[in-house]
Amino acid sequence: PAFRQAKVYVSESYGDVATSLEQVRITDKQMQKIADTQTPQGIVAVVPFRTAESLSAPCASTGETTKEKTIYLYEVQDPGNLGTILRTLAWFGGFRCVLSPNSVDPYNPKVVRASMGAIFHLPIELDVSIDELKTRFDHFACLDIEGAPLSSEGFTEQQCFIFGNEARGVPHEELARLDVTAYSIPGAGVLESLNLATAVNMCAYELNR
Predict the structure, then answer these.
(1) pTM over 0.90
(2) CATH topology of domain 52-207
(3) 201 — phi, psi (to 5°)?
(4) CB-based contact 66:94 (threshold 8 Å)
């Protein structure tokens, strides 16, 4: 609903735009002023903010909340990572993204751009603590180099998957309070770890094979 209320601004040098949304033509100089990138693409949409309630509500592509898989991101900081994760989860459908306190704002311009519109098609919850998460789920899954491979029995049956901060992960004392099963993404062993977004995306793919 929020996206259908959007207004699209198009620079004069941009081609024709096929859209049912309200469209406003502006000069290239005006586009340069309102865009937050050095080389704007020439088209910008102004969209109403989704309320906390609508942001976390199930989307048509995800079905019932009880059938969703929950991806919990603990203090994720990089806007590009979050945007990429949202894009992947929306692509597969059936996911809910839950952010801990002290995570990057999903309305950060870099997150919105990297998500390629996924923010309008995915249930997202903000500022959810691990204590609150414990009231929703009995069991959790996380990634650890010593864990069983993703292909192991039981991985796809998990309902909540926890991923940590890019630099620090999830504190051990936090995980110790949860009933967590650890899994791993097998590799050649020449690198220490995977990028956060890459790890989440590989798990999302495995859950949808």
Answers:
(1) no
(2) Alpha/beta knot (3.40.1280)
(3) -65, -40
(4) no
